[in-house]
């Protein structure tokens, strides 16, 4: 075993996959000479050279759309969109090209690629360096959307994504990059796409979350355990297509569900999962399904007090869960 | 009204002498195949034999046929909705195009794409999306891959002058210039982007000037002179294949009919249409072939008879094929099925 940070796990996954398969390339802004703005691609240029680690102009549409073309003729590109806030500039290739190429060609063309997108708040990034934006991709069939919360999963899911034959949106929460460490195996391992993980077992209620908020949910669960409330915490890991079985199994066990995410409530991941629980496990519920999310405002504001007000945290989660447990 | 910079009096004899006669005959075959097939598809649509609409490229055929004739099987065509000529010339069988037109289950896209977004993976014809210029971005990415893979393949990116206004066009050509990518950018300047005239699309007169901003060569040619298009494209394809970078080719041409069959195109004048019909790429080429003796009328009739038979047979075959099952809509979403649930280990 070795102890790595979240970002080191991501770098290792890319380097190992590039060693294993020469079809894997990395492209994006500042990814080569600079090693990435967060140093996620550090060392790749030296090891793999400028043909496989490509510094691009500020051209998000080409970074992703060019990767679609490269994937179509046999490469396995890992394009990087530096911040999810800028993913808007690459929407045509993400939504119209990558997500639909297989479908519109009846399976004749495929698009095996991993679009790495850095996202998330709690770092004082202000409006355009703090958004999570997974709701922009969630529900777009043809895309697999992944959002790991631990170094182990970050590495294992990235490897699965590179080896798979589908376009994957791989969301990296920037707060997790150096805040969280994990012991991971020395040897090669993967984590399957599409499977949630029960991070903590409990009987009284289920909290479903992912990325940073999953950690905040675990903190809340610790607090509540001292009060005699046993919370089950599910880490979705893959947001779409999401793991209905694991979720419904937990609903049947605890009968109460709180969904937590950073992005705004309306049109978010939580609403969709809540609706599915209502449709398929209504009789198992002892309380309404609740959501604790970011606010329905345009973007994460800069002033610390406002950012804190916008975001869920361990205290807010504990308070909401306490209320739900008593429902 | 903007006119071509070249004369209306037929093809340049000097250019013709540089094109081997066999290629001249082949080009005639492809040109006529596209013209006749296109006109037949318009008729099929008017007869109500397929849904949606149809995007004709009649009048512009030389701009797509001649460049595609310079490509081999491993080269890629990244087409717009008006690049059917490139796809047919690349070798997609008419029966396969018709299966797509009729949305049959046997179609390469299994009935999913609209009959203007033809794709044929086995000959590397990209099945395009509708967002204008998107195929330029994707095609340029394929050119990047060919360079990385050290494969001597070239990418044809087709688009209209309207497509050059998109951001993706700029991002792609900028990148292609930086890395000397093996691509040719064939701009069919037909003076109209649906209903918007070229002078409202850009201040520049010559769209090939755009290439200057990306550091590579741009040329403007008479897109209705198939031999001139061929010679220009051949040079550009050879250059790209040799690793000497991309070329932007602006082909001045004209679309005879509306944006699609449901567009009466009444934003244009009859005078303009008549001017361009006099520059019909087919009539000009036939006149030349007759005069030069490369193909006499009887030789040409033999070719068109053969094409007519192929079209007829292809229609009969494709139309008799089955419609897709409705629930085939659920297929080809992911590499795994059924969508959207993952298989569980």
The CATH C-level name of chain B is Alpha Beta
How much beta of chain A, percentage-wise? 15-25%
Question: What are the low-pLDDT stretches of chain B, counting only 5+ consecutive residues below 50?
Answer: 4-9
The CATH topology of chain B turns out to be Rossmann fold
Q: Could you describe the largest sheet of chain A, including whether it forms a barrel?
A: 7 strands, mixed
| Secondary-structure element string of chain B | HHHEHHHEHEEEEHEHHH
**Which assembly state applies to the chains in this document?**
heterodimer
- Helix count, DSSP H or I runs of 4 or more residues of chain A: 12
% residues in beta strands of chain B:
5-15%
What is the global morphology of chain A? globular
Q: Quickly give the CATH architecture of the largest domain in chain A.
A: 3-Layer(aba) Sandwich
Radius of gyration of chain A: 19 Å
> What is the arithmetic mean of pLDDT of chain A?
97
CATH fourth-tier homologous superfamily of chain B: Thiamin diphosphate (ThDP)-binding fold, Pyr/PP domains
Helix content of chain A: 25-40%
**Tally of domains of chain A:** 2
Measured as a percent range, the helix fraction of chain B is 40-55%
At a glance:
With 327 residues, chain A is an alpha/beta fold.
Describe the overall structure:
The complex is a heterodimer of chains A (327) and B (345). Chain A is α/β, with parallel strands linked by helices and 327 residues long. The termini of chain A are far apart. Chain A has helices spanning 6-20, 44-48, 60-72, 91-98, 101-104, 151-163, 176-179, 211-226, 244-254, 269-281, 304-310, 314-325, and strands at residues 2-5, 24-28, 53-55, 76-81, 113-119, 144-146, 167-173, 181-184, 197-200, 205-209, 231-235, 238-240, 257-264, 290-294. A seven-stranded mixed beta sheet of chain A has the order 3-2-4-5-7-6-12, with helices on both faces. A five-stranded mixed beta sheet of chain A has the order 9-11-10-13-14, with helices on both faces. Chain A has twelve helices and 14 strands. The mean pLDDT of chain A is 97. Chain B has eleven helices and seven strands. In chain B, helix 2 (21-46) crosses helix 4, helix 2 packs antiparallel against helix 10 (281-292) and helix 3 (61-69) runs parallel beside helix 4 (84-90). The longest helix of chain B has 26 residues, at 21-46. Mean pLDDT of chain B is 93; it is low at 4-9. The interface between A and B is large, with 50 and 54 residues.
């Amino acid at each position: 075993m070795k102890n790595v940070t979240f970002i080191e796990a991501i770098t290792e996954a890319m380097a190992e996959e590039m060693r294993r398969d020469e079809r894997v390339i990395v492209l994006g802004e500042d990814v080569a000479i600079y090693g990435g703005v967060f140093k996620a691609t550090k060392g790749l240029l030296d090891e793999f050279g400028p043909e496989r680690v490509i510094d691009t102009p500020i051209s998000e549409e080409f970074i992703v759309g060019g990767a679609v073309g490269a994937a179509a003729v046999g490469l396995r590109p890992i394009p990087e969109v530096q911040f999810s806030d800028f993913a808007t500039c690459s929407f045509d290739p993400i939504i119209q090209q990558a997500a639909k190429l297989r479908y519109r060609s009846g399976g004749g063309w495929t698009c095996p690629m991993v679009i790495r997108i850095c996202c998330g708040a709690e770092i004082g990034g202000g409006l355009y360096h703090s958004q999570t934006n997974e709701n922009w991709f969630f529900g777009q069939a043809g895309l697999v959307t992944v959002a790991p919360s631990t170094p182990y999963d970050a590495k294992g899911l990235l490897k699965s994504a590179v080896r798979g034959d589908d376009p994957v949106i791989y969301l990296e929460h920037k707060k997790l990059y150096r805040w969280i460490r994990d012991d991971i195996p020395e040897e090669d391992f993967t984590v399957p796409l599409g499977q949630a993980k029960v991070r903590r077992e409990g009987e009284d209620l289920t909290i479903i979350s992912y990325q940073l908020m999953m950690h905040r949910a675990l903190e809340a669960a610790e607090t509540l355990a001292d009060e005699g409330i046993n919370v089950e915490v599910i880490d979705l890991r893959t947001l779409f297509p999401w793991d209905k079985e694991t979720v419904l199994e937990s609903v049947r066990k605890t009968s109460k569900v709180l969904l937590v995410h950073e992005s705004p409530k309306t049109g978010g991941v939580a609403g969709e999962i809540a609706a599915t629980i209502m449709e398929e496990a209504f009789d198992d519920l002892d309380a309404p399904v609740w959501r604790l999310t970011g606010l329905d405002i345009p973007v994460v504001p800069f002033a610390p007090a406002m950012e804190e007000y916008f975001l869920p945290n361990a205290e807010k989660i504990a308070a909401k869960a306490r209320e739900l447990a008593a429902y | 009204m903007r006119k071509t910079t070249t004369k209306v009096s037929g093809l340049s004899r000097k250019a013709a002498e540089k094109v081997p006669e066999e290629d001249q005959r082949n080009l005639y075959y492809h040109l006529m195949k596209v013209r006749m097939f296109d006109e037949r598809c318009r008729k099929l649509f008017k007869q109500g034999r397929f849904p949606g609409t149809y995007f004709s490229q009649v009048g512009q055929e030389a701009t797509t046929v001649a460049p595609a004739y310079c490509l081999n099987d491993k080269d890629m065509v990244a087409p717009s909705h008006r690049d059917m000529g490139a796809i047919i010339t690349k070798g997609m069988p008419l029966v396969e195009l018709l299966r797509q037109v009729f949305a049959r289950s046997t179609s390469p896209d299994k009935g999913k794409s609209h009959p203007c977004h033809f794709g044929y993976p086995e000959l590397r014809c990209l099945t395009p999306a509708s967002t204008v210029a998107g195929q330029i971005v994707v095609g340029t990415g394929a050119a990047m891959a060919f360079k990385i893979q050290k494969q001597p393949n070239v990418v044809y990116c087709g688009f209209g002058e309207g497509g050059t206004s998109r951001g993706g066009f700029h991002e792609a050509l900028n990148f292609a210039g930086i890395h000397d990518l093996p691509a040719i950018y064939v701009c069919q300047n037909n003076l109209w982007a649906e209903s918007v005239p070229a002078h409202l699309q850009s201040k520049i007169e010559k769209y090939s000037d755009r290439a200057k901003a990306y550091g590579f060569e741009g040329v403007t040619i008479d897109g209705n002179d198939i031999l001139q298009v061929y010679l220009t494209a051949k040079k550009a394809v050879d250059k790209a294949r040799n690793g000497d970078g991309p070329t932007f080719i602006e082909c001045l041409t004209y679309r005879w009919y509306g944006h699609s069959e449901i567009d009466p195109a009444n934003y244009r004048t009859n005078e303009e249409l008549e001017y361009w019909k006099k520059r019909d790429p087919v009539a000009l080429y036939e006149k030349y072939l007759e005069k030069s003796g490369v193909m006499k009328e009887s030789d040409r009739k033999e070719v068109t008879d053969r094409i007519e038979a192929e079209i007829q047979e292809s229609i009969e075959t494709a139309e008799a094929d089955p419609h897709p099952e409705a629930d085939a809509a659920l297929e080809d979403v992911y590499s795994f099925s059924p969508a959207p649930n993952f298989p569980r280990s």
